[in-house]
Amino acid sequence: MPHGQTEFATCKSCSDGNKATQLGLTAENTLSFDNVYTDAAGIYRVLMAPATAGPKSMIFQVNVGAPEALRVGGGSSSQPASITVPIRLQVGYNSIVFGNSAAPAPDLDRIEVLGSSFAPESGPKAYEAELAQWAGGQTVFQCPLCSGGALVGTLIQVTENGLTFSDIEVPTSAVYELEIDYVANGQHSLALKINDGNDVQVDLNGSSATLPGQRGCSRVLEGWKKHNGRQKP
Question: 20 to 30 A from 173, CA-CA: which of 109, 196, 201, 220?
């Protein structure tokens, strides 16, 4: 079902001759599939068929889970691609919502749950800064090279400014490798706080205001906890 300005348009190469278009740019422009049915809970292979001329990012949310970003590319908005994504579904009916509140999302032809076989557990899971909880004067900027097509900027060195990722789930308490994707032109640092622990300074170096860099750090995580990041110039 389309919401906001999202609508269906003719697409000769699409599965039923139509596709959903005008997804993204605002939180209202979404497409929801509310009748995705499975006989058993587990991780399934879900085929997605986006159509785009050039790279774009699609944000999707399954039931009440954390939103996830899917970066896709293509040579034509009239020719759907095919991407298979492992998704955890509950028994019975599931809802999957597609959009992107911060940037244009690709058009979408269809999705399909591939049979009843379970897929293996997915690898690293990404959490988008523009979907986190903000405190202070942050601003979202479009960023074509970033994973969700956007980044959060204007993080300045005051206590009130920060981003909280409150929906990070891990299967067991252990040391995990965290990857921080950032954009920095010069030397910066951020304070990383996990649950009720102390702030840990993470130094970041970059040479571009548009190309993301990566910084890894090992930290202990527990299930259903959150961490807090504050960037210092």
Answer: 201
